[in-house]
Amino acid sequence: MTDVAQPDLVRNSWMLNLIDEAKAGRLPTPTFASWLITRACNLKCYYCFASARKKDPDELTTGEAMRVIEDLADTGVFYLSYIGGEPLLRKDIYQLIDYSTDLGIYTGIHTNGMLVREDTVAKLKDVGCQILGVSIDSHDPIVHDRVRGVSGSLVGAKRAVLESVKAGIRCSIRIVVTEDSLPALPDLFNWARDTGVEELIIIPIFMVGRAAGTPDDRRADILGKELFWKGLDVLREVANPLGITVPEEKVACCVGIELNTPDKENHHAGHAFGFERSTGCRVGKFIMNIQPNGDIFSCPFVQHKIGSLRTQSVREIWAHPLLRAAREGDMGCHARSIIHTGRPDVVDPTYNRSTEDLLAELPAGAKPLSLTPIQN
Ligand SMILES: C[S@@+](CC[C@H](N)C(=O)[O-])C[C@H]1O[C@@H](n2cnc3c(N)ncnc32)[C@H](O)[C@@H]1O
Ligand code: SF4
Asked: By the 8 A CB rule, do 116 and 88 touch?
């Protein structure tokens, strides 16, 4: 944690120490949970890793979900992000957010924005939601709506951002870097900043779920990684002159960019350093990935089950040998280990390798090796 300028106030904070401990794989419990609370969705993005569309028949009930929240709180998880599918399609979502914030967990929701209106944001604020994340793929409605499969979806996403900022809920924008979104990054960065958005989350495309099935998925994955780094470089050009840091990310997984510099009144040190600085592969170090039925996947992007909160506790699952191995070694990106070898327990073969070398070695038509498509 020495790569960014930090005011004295935060340089020695417990949060920084915690992040260092997590990165070193020394935490006895996870700090974050990302919960795919429903697979139901009102959009049909061509690349959706969750293949979201219909609700799973075995989704956790409200009571079961509340018991999971209790377990997370007892274990010391302090950040919970409800994703989906579209989390606002779950009727009890406000109740679940209310319960997690009541138990002291910093809670956010990640939405495509279609269902967000002034009253939605007011209700989210009322139940203590701290952050509202919205996905945007481009400023151009033709691009965004084509990616999302429903016309009017950019209007909904932008409305959600504006309502969130107006209501004073921290807002983040999530952008998956593709050939479509790359040209939009500088404009989205400037729009986000001018609008009062607090963070950008930049995500590489993973060729899984509905994104899988190109003629050559492993090649597409490697090119997607390259595109992601290019995206971060493009953003550095606009961010650096403003004193905004775009973190280095050698593994090529999600990166958070804090748009408020530490001198700004609304800069939130805990938020910025706690969440944005959790770079690298988070598997086994920071995060627990919960599925709609309580199954735990090692990584949100690949369907590799390592436990179930219907029958096990968070602590028990955190002791899984795969997560222990991820804590103990620097294995690159766990998702790419699976995508490129079919095995979750080996080092990511694309890690620290040049794109040229990787492409030269790949057989034509290389598919992801062991991903089971979700049936819906
Ligand atoms: C699955 S969505 C769930 C929340 C909400 N429905 C939304 O679209 O923001 C969570 C995030 O994952 C991103 N995403 C979906 N499929 C992806 C993929 N194949 N690779 C990388 N990110 C992906 C989405 O764009 C979104 O920002
Ligand atoms: S990425 Fe989000 S909005 Fe798009 S289909 Fe998946 S869950 Fe729905």
From this structure: yes
Residue bearing tokens 């569309």: 53
Reading the block at residue 149, the tokens are: 């499969």
Query: Rounded to the nearest 5 degrees, what angle is found at the Cα of 262, between the Cα atoms of 257 and 268?
Result: 75
Cα separation of 232 and 235, whole Å?
5
**CA–CA separation, 201 and 180 (whole Å):** 17
Residue 7 Cα to ligand 1 midpoint, Å, equals 33
Does the global pTM surpass 0.70?
yes
Write out the two tokens for 175.
């952008």
Contacting residues for 346 by C-beta, under 8 A, at least 6 apart: 331, 337
Task: Provide the phi-psi class of 352: left if phi over 0, else alpha when psi is between -120 and 50, else beta.
Answer: left
Q: Which residues are CB-neighbours of 199 under 8 A, at least 6 positions away? A: 170, 172, 173, 256, 257, 258, 259, 272, 275, 276
What pLDDT score was predicted for residue 373?
37
Long-range pairs, 117-122, Cβ under 8 A, ≥24: 117/159, 117/163, 118/163, 118/166, 118/167, 120/88, 120/163, 121/160, 121/163, 121/164, 121/166, 121/167, 121/169, 122/167
pLDDT score for 194: 95
Is the C-beta atom of 41 inside 6 A of ligand 2? yes
Stretch 235-248: mean pLDDT = 94
Q: How many angstroms separate the alpha carbon of residue 374 from the centre of ligand 1?
A: 16
Q: Whose CA is nearest to atom 6 of ligand 2?
A: 48
Which atom of ligand 2 lies closest to the CA of 209? 6
Over residues 35-62, the mean pLDDT reads 97
Ligand 2 centroid to residue 372 C-alpha, Å: 19
The size of the chain, in residues, is 376
Encode 91-102: b = buried (16+ Cβ within 10 Å), e = exposed.
Answer: eebbebbbbbbe
Distance in angstroms (rounded) separating the CA atoms of residues 179 and 162 = 26
> 217-239 vs 185-195: helix axis angle to the nearest 10?
50
Least distant ligand from the CA of 175: 1
